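Extended Data, panel c. Modelled sequence:
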Amino acid sequence: MNDKPNKVYTKSQALKKAEYYCAYQERCQQDARNKLYQLGMHYQEVEEIIAMLIEDNFINEERFAKAFASGKFHILKWGKVKIKNELKKKNISEYCIRKSIEEIDESEYHLTLINIIEKKTKEIKAGNKFQIMAKVASFAISKGYESELVTDIVKDRFEK
């Protein structure tokens, strides 16, 4: 696969493409950088364009982190651990990560985890109680929920 762009973009053309890219969906600096490098831009031009995008509010890391966390939690039902890890991979600051995680309602988070555990428990057909508990807990932890919280809920669910 050829990573070279087919067209050579000027700085102003690349800026327009980056503005459109960022306006279409929330983006972080790293996503915008990657896009600009795909367009064949060089380091200095990329950094200048990123600065312009930030100045014109096309990129806002805190806004991105909040939108990312909200979307991943509400749509994909990810837990806080997985959300934090994915934001770290995108070079989002600890401050922005913390702010985005604080936006997740605790009662909704807890209820979502209970629903995930209930649904997964119904899907597992074979095994004794402890095997089912282990599979359910493993699944919830893989979705990014805190192991202590998962363990507490799974134990509570199976003690009924």
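The CA atoms of residues 122 and 132 lie 10 Å apart. This feature is highlighted in the accompanying rendering.
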